[in-house]
Specification:
This protein is an alpha/beta fold and 318 residues long. The protein is built from ten helices and 15 strands. Strand 8, helix 4 and strand 9 form a beta-alpha-beta unit.
Amino acid sequence: MKAIRVEKFGEPEVLKLQEVADPVAGPGQVVVRVRAVGVNPVETYIRSGNYAMLPALPFTPGVDGAGEVDSVGAGAPFAKGERVFFGGTLSGAYAEKVLCEASQLHRLPQPLSFAQGAALGIPYATAWCAMFQRAHLSAGEKVLVHGATGGVGIAAVQLARAAGCTVVGTAGSEEGRKVVLAQGAHHAVDHGAADHLEAAMDLAGGPFDLVVEMLANVNLGKDLTALARFGRVVVIGSRGPVEVNPRDLMARDASIIGMILWNASDKEKAALWAGIGAGLEAGTLRPVVYKELPLAEAARAHREILGTKAAGKMVLVP
């Protein structure tokens, strides 16, 4: 089979399509024939070597994907041909086939496409963990989602709205703001405007109980001024250091919470996937895909994903 391999950390050009051996399922494991792979910003950081947790070289990148069960090891509760999606693998997702533990697989509901299935794993699990398991979001609270057009941002908007919260999302284009509203946000604002936090608070009817932050190095210091008493900022992404005024926290008894999905326990993962599965069945969660590229163009995907203003998930198709 073919898979993307990284033999040294560096620029997108280190992503090479190579011929590798097919994976073999052991006990409790499943081999999936991949039909779509999700591309996440975190994978660009790992590929470049600028991430706290790096895999041993060489490796195949990628976590999210969807496809059909190809073969099943002893004791794995799946059947050949079943439609599945995954938010983790043993072998790396940028490939024609992947090896997964059975616990990493979830059945893909109809009528979701494989591309939509590939948009589920990291984005929806991250948003759920950040908001409900780390920041303890409750119904009736006001939520600001910064960068609401990305995969995690869209997931956060849909989840917060379904939980009974007032949701404001930010986006950098008129098209993006329309998408944010279409995904359930009550309001959308231009995060390029100098007064966008004031505008967001006016629309929400007051300061926010929770800010979901995708770019803390740009926004975190200002986020603290938009928090209600006992408000929280949950930091999902950052590309560098930032300066904050602790008095903005002290005045509000507020909190900054960092999170990374890899730290979630098995119990937390089981809980979040139970919640996400219920949302998929009910139709309140709807992954958005904006571009599909061939697997061989993984380098192009990595160049584009950090600079795009499009809304939704970028997907590779083997």
